[in-house]
Amino acid sequence: MSPLGEILAKYGRPQPWRSVAELALPAAGYVGLWVAMVRSLEVSYALTLALSVPAAGFLMRLFIISHDCGHESYFQSRLANDMVGRVLAFLAFTPYRYWRRFH
Prior knowledge:
With 103 residues, the protein is an all-alpha fold. The chain has five helices and no strands. It has helices spanning 3-9, 16-40, 45-70, 78-91, 96-102. Helix 2 (16-40) packs antiparallel against helix 3 (45-70) and helix 3 (45-70) runs antiparallel to helix 4. The radius of gyration is 17 Å and the shape is elongated. The mean pLDDT is 92.
């Protein structure tokens, strides 16, 4: 293996601590913005609409994580990939099993 291949090989395996950290940030952002959107309905519909834009970005990141779980590349455990992937796919209105099989 080339020296560059050896350096890059460590990034080819899932790292549990990094997977959890990469999942926690968009999940917290999405939930926080969702709560803020519900509360902002009493203030202004325009504010609610404005908050929906970054919320959609966080949801897209969660869908990307679900996609990676479908390829079994996000966690080392297949069970963990399937559990997280199913929950995140539900949020994105995507049938996880179908997506995993036919994508």
